[in-house]
Amino acid sequence: AQKVTQAQTEISVVEKEDVTLDCVYETRDTTYYLFWYKQPPSGELVFLIRRNSFDEQNEISGRYSWNFQKSTSSFNFTITASQVVDSAVYFCALRHSGNTPLVFGKGTRLSVIA
Amino acid sequence: EPEVTQTPSHQVTQMGQEVILRCVPISNHLYFYWYRQILGQKVEFLVSFYNNEISEKSEIFDDQFSVERPDGSNFTLKIRSTKLEDSAMYFCASSEFKGTGELFFGEGSRLTVL
Predict the structure, then answer these.
(1) Which residues of chain B have pLDDT under 50?
(2) Residue B50's beta-bridge partner residues?
(3) Closest in B93, B99, B107 to A100, CB measured
(4) Of all residues in chain B, what percent are helix, strand and coil, respectively (each to 5)?
(5) Nearest to B76 by CA among B96, B47, B55, B41
């Protein structure tokens, strides 16, 4: 069975602070894909990143970075120097190979205060 | 940039009425999905569709739901007799590759059942 746990329900930070959103996953498969999506107040789901299980390299994209650690089954997301526009709900998700459904965590609501 | 489009953006209906939500996936994508998000909750898988048939469905996707690709471009979700608990945001998604690719989501259709 697949499961994604985002233990942080809500996080509030002051602008320019760094913030890390945690994601822990469970799967029995050796081949799988991990994702982060952003859901701003307007409601759409915006794709941020995909990682496959064979690639543990950390990734940085501007102020965003992701830390994938298979040993702890975690795929954490860090926003550096947060901005008000980062305020959103962030979902971590897991998918196996094959045409299998994407399984989402419950999401972390991030509020960045000016 | 190609995108998934959904109509209507918001629909209000009376309990017991039939509702059809429409989606136009990205044109070269072969895999289509419907997900649901009840307000404030996580995004849940409903159904996946490939080669004109359902690939997988969740237990939420009962006999009241059906999907169709009537004309090679639209992908529709029909709810035969809506219930109050069907009130949610419904997201359509498509992907190009089987399992490996990210899902591209539409902006969602908010359904309110009164």
Answers:
(1) none
(2) B31, B53
(3) B99
(4) 5, 50, 45
(5) B47
Interchain CB distance below 8 Å, B110 and A43 = yes
- Give the span between the Cα atoms of B89 and B109, in whole angstroms: 5
* B9 touches A at CB < 8 Å: no
> Tens of pLDDT along A23-40?
999 998 888 999 999 999
H or E segment at B109?
strand B109-113
Q: What is the pLDDT of residue A8?
A: 97
A52: nearest Cα among B34, B97, B26: B97
Closest CA to A108 of A91, A87, A94, A85: A91
Q: How many CB atoms lie within 10 A of CB A92?
A: 27
For A43, other C-beta atoms within 10 Å of its C-beta total 14
Please report the pLDDT score of residue B99 as a whole number: 59
Closest CA to A82 of A64, A94, A106: A64
A112: pLDDT strictly greater than 80: yes
Nearest CA of chain B to the CA of A65: how many Å?
Answer: 18
Interface touch B48/A99, C-beta < 8 Å: yes
Exposure string over B71-91, b if 16+ CB within 10 A, otherwise e: eeeebbbebeebeeebbbbbb
Residue A62, classed as helix, strand or coil, is coil
Q: Looking at CA atoms only, how far is residue A105 from chain B in angstroms?
A: 7
Cα A42 to Cα A24: distance, rounded to the nearest angstrom: 27
pLDDT digits (tens, 9 = 90+) for A84-102: 999 999 999 998 876 678 8
